[in-house]
Structure formats: C-alpha cells, structure tokens
Amino acid sequence: MARTLCKCVFVFLVLALSGLVFLLHNIHSVENLTYRNISTLYQSKLHPAQLAATLSTSYHNHTCAQLGEKLSREDELEQRALLDYIDWPGPPPRSRPTTLPYSSDPTRSHFTILPKGGKKWYVGDQLEVLVQMQDFHGRRKQYGGDFLLARLHSPELGAGVAGRVLDHQNGLYSVSLPLLWSGPAQVEVTLVHPSEAVAVLQRLRRERSDRVFFQSLFRLGSLSETTLCNMCLPLDEYPLCNYTDLHTGEPWYCYKPKMLSCDTRVNHAKGGYLKRLISNKESLLFQSGVNLKVQVQASGADRITVLPPRRDELGVQSIKPESVQLVTSGYYYQNSWRPLDGANMHQFNDSSAISQCLKNKVINMFGDSTVRQWFEYLIASLPELKQLNLHSPKNVGPFMAVDSTHNILVKYRCHGPPIRFSNVSASELRYISNELDLLSGGPDTVVVLSIWAHFSTFPVEVYIRRLRHIRRALVRLLNREPGTVVVIRSANLQVLDQNVSLYNSDWFSLQLDEVLKSMFSRLDVLLVDAWQMSLAHHLPHALHPHPPIIKNMVDLVLSYICPESRKS
Questions:
Q1: Separation of alpha carbons 339 and 332, rounded Å
Q2: NXPE C-terminal domain: from which residue to which, for each copy (predicted)?
Q3: What whole-number distance in Å separates Cα of residue 117 and Cα of residue 301?
Q4: Which of 194, 210, 423, 487 is most open to solvent, judged by the fewest CB atoms within 10 Å of its CB?
C-alpha cells in the first residue's frame, strides 16, 4: 500500500513539474507572439489584405519626428519657421461634421475674372480672379483650407503659366495670374482636395507614418528570414537592428530576425501599403470626378485677349518683371519653357549640341526615380552615351553611362531610406550627404539632386532633417570647389485617385516642395521648378512627367551648365 502511494506521489510530482514547465514556456511564447508574427509575416502565405490588417495592429502611432540628432538652437528656429510657413488652415474645431454634404463641391463653386479699370489687359499686367467655394447644398463655405490650383494657358500658342492662390479663410480665394504673352488666354481653376479632405491627410501624416511599410531579407547560408523595417519602429518593445547612419544620424530600424544576426541583412525593399486607413464617410471626400482634381467653372467668361506691352512716352515697350517673378519662376510659350530669372534658355534639339555641352564632364545624379528620368533621357538622346552593365536591378540602380568620344560620364544612384524601390542591395544604400562628401568637385563636376516623393508619408520634420544634412554637405562641397555645378529638382504634380491621395497626394508634395525651395534658396544652385513646369503645361499630371516636360527640364539644366550655348 505504501509502495503504491509513493508511486502515485512520484507520478503526480512529475506531472505537476511538466505542467509548470509547459505553462512557463507558453507564457514566454505569448509574450513574444507579436514579435514572432512580425518577424515571420513575410515567410507566411498571408493574403496582402490580411498582412496589412496584421501590421495595422502590430504597431501604430509611433512618431519619428523627434528621432535623429538633437537640434541646435539655430536649427530648431529654422524648423519652427518652416513649419509655420507651410501651416495650412482647416475647418474650425467646432464646425459641422466632416461629411460630404458640408464639404466643398467644385460643381457648385465658381470663379470670376475681376474687371479691370481700363477694360483691357496688356502683357506685363496681372489678371485677378476671385473663387467662391460652396458646399454640396449650394451654401457658401465660411472657412478656407481648400487645396486649389490655378493656371493661365493658351492651347493655340502652346503657352501656360502657374497662378498664385491666396486663401482668405472665409470660402473666398484670390488668384493672381501674370500676363506674359499677347493673344488668347484662358483661366483654369482646379479643386485638388476640399479642406475637409486635407484635414484627413493632415491626421494621416501626423498619426500614421507607418502606412507605407518596408522589409529586409536576412540570409546566412541556406537560412533566411524577412522582417519589417521603418524609421519609426517602437524602440523599446521588441529586439531591433539599428541601422542609424553613423555620419548623419539618420535613423533606420528593422525587427531583428529570430535566428540570424543584424549583419546578415541582404537588401531593402518596399513591403506594401496599409489599407483601411480612413472611415467610409471620410472616403467620400476622395472621389475622382466628384471632389478630387475637378475643375471649378467660371460664372462668366473664362477667356481674355491680351494685348502687346504698353509703350512709354518714347515708344518703348515696358514690362515690369519684378512683380511677375513673385508669382512664377517661368512660363511656356510655343511649348518651350522660358525662365523669369533673367537667364536665357537654349533649345538642345540635337545630340551634338548636348554632347558638346557635356564634353569632359562628370554628371552625378542622386535621388528618386524622377531624376532617374533625366538619366534615361540622356541615354535615349545621345547615341554615343553607352550604359554600362553593372548588373543592377532594373529601375533601381546604381547606373553608369560613358561617352568615350566626348569624355562624358553620367552616374545615377538612389537616395537612402526611406525609399520605396522593389529591391535595393543593402550595400548600395547610401545617403546623399555622405556621397557628396566623397566628391572632389570642380567646374567639370555636375551634381543633380531630387529627393521628395518617398517622404510624403512621414512628418515634415523628417524631410527637413534630411535636407539639412544635404545642404550642409553641399556647402562643404561648394566651399572646397566653388566651380561645382549643382542642380536641384523640385517636386511635381501627379495623377491622383483615392488610394494615391492617402500616400502621395499633391498636398503632401506641395508641402515638401515649399520646404525644399526655402531651404536651398540662398545657395548658389539651379532650382528646377518642376512643380510649376508640370502645373503650367497642358499635358496631364504624372508622377513621372511626360517627355516634352522632361525635355524642357533637361534643356534648362544644360543651359545652366553651358551658358555660352545661349548665345548661339
């Protein structure tokens, strides 16, 4: 009997101990469930919609505005001034609900060309237009914040110019349009987003910088894992790989693989886009053909005829360009861009002219795919410029092309993360400021930069920080070699639908564009105003502008590189 009891006690103790071990093991597993899910999401066969839903609950509202190096007092003041400069008015806090019926309706809104004292318009004058926004009930809006675009154009003359929109914050908007050619001119006003939609975009930028997510592959021998990466991963919840740049302090993190070390990272890639970011009611504010990039009609005439410039007492035509330059950086006439900074622009219509301009030069292009277009344009335009096979992924780079006859070297490299390319080798992830510090510079060195499209989902502070590092590197480059030619390409408009708007709206691009122009305004560089060049042109908006616009951009750059060509 005693022997049987001892056996039962022993069995009971073994079972109890086993149960305790099992419980402790599962508690540890539950505590690490989220991390393991995140680390192995890409190894599973989840549908993209399921993946996005899982990610949405995994990390949320992690700000990245305060990451990076601590700001100096000077940098802090500049950042505050920039944020104030781009501050956007919106619906009053206690206004009616943000629903479609109370939002701006472009079909019920209208614009009016304001009459002029002399009843005639001349080249050099300013055309004034008043826009009145109304809601879907036909009632005038009592507050501002609508995102409007305006241009003056003449299809007959191949002419166009961007207008300036002033928000009176009471439902009324003034548009100023410079008159730069004689002949017919037509006013066009477009509602890109109603103010209620802009408020949604502001919230997304503030709260959901994770709405585009990234991934990296880690591999060692036959073992591989893929984990999530971003600038804004929580720093204190799960093990991370810290890839913060040692020179600039630019932050970047990946979730640490379960079985591999951080130094086994192979690549960087765009993971995808989170869905279901807005409510059904909010989605009604982003409807193509209803309130998303829809033209506002005129209440009267939308066309005028512009007369040649007035003549002074001596019979000389007089134009005051200083007021025009406050509004626009240039305009199209006969489908050619004409800058208003006092410089002439030469048309490089044959390959020999381009080759002579770039002879003995090294052109270094850094940035996103909008400047890669320029690389591709040169390859297509110059028969003797041959692209070398660097075995780089298509549309990713790095790329290099050589014209041995004219001693021309053209290079392109994408900027560092965040970048939404499909597959960038980890060894090829470079920050522009670090690359600039490696350049010797000189009069035969051309630097071309474009960096904006991949920052639209992040707080503006992130973009300011990146541009600050680039600006410092450019100052160092120009100090050691003042003859270096530097060109900076700004943001441009693109085609929008609801999905694109939530990640890459023109409103995000406009905010970044204003910051870029302000931060580089005092440097000795050429700023290619891609925003106005895409707005003023008659072709549809596109993330990668159409060939005629690209040609005008490249011609502007070549005219800056080779000012002597302007005399020919």
A1: 9
A2: 337-562
A3: 17
A4: 423
pLDDT tens by residue, 459-517: 999 999 999 999 999 999 999 999 999 999 999 999 999 999 999 999 999 999 999 99
Closest CA to 364 of 408, 405, 403, 424: 408
Per the confidence metrics, is the pTM higher than 0.90?
A: no
CB 278 within 8 A of CB 499: no
The two structure tokens encoding residue 423? 């597959």
**DSSP assignment letter at 238:** S
Residue 163 pLDDT level (bands cut at 50, 70, 90): very high
The percent of the chain in helix, strand and coil, each rounded to the nearest 5, is: 35, 25, 40
Distance CA 36, CA 255 (A): 10
> Alpha helices, DSSP H only, in 255-393?
280-283, 321-325, 351-358, 369-381
pLDDT digits (tens, 9 = 90+) for 53-69: 455 544 444 456 667 77
pLDDT band at 39 (very low <50, low <70, confident <90, very high): very low
Strand pairing report for 147-154 and 183-193: antiparallel
pLDDT at 348: 96
Query: Which domains occur in the chain, in start order?
Result: 46-67+207-271 (no CATH), 98-198+282-309 (2.60.40.10), 344-559 (3.40.50.1110)
Q: Checking DSSP bridges between strand 294-298 and strand 240-242, what pairing results, if any?
A: unpaired
Instruction: Please report, for residues 193, 404, 459, the alpha-carbon distance to residue 508 in angstroms, rounded to integers and kept in the order given.
Output: 11, 42, 10
Rounded to the nearest 10 degrees, the angle between the axes of helix 369-381 and helix 547-561 is 80
If you ran DSSP here, which 8-state letter would residue 221 be given? T
In whole angstroms, give the CA distance from residue 174 to residue 171: 10
Q: Which sign does the torsion angle of CA 416, 417, 422, 425 carry? A: positive
What region, left, alpha or beta, does residue 395 occupy, with left being phi > 0 and alpha being psi -120 to 50 degrees? left
Amino acid symbol at 328:
T
Q: How many CB atoms lie within 10 A of CB 140?
A: 13
Angle at 318 between CA 313 and CA 320, to 5 degrees: 135
pLDDT computed for residue 90 by the predictor: 84
**ω into residue 48 within 30 of 0, thus cis?**
no
Give how far the C-alpha of residue 500 lies from the chain's centroid of Cα atoms, to the nearest Å.
12
Distance CA 322, CA 319 (A): 9
Written as six digits, the tokens of 4 are: 């049987």
Q: In Å, how far are 69, 158, 535 from 210, measured between CA atoms?
A: 21, 42, 30
Q: Which pair of structure tokens corresponds to residue 25? A: 């093991």
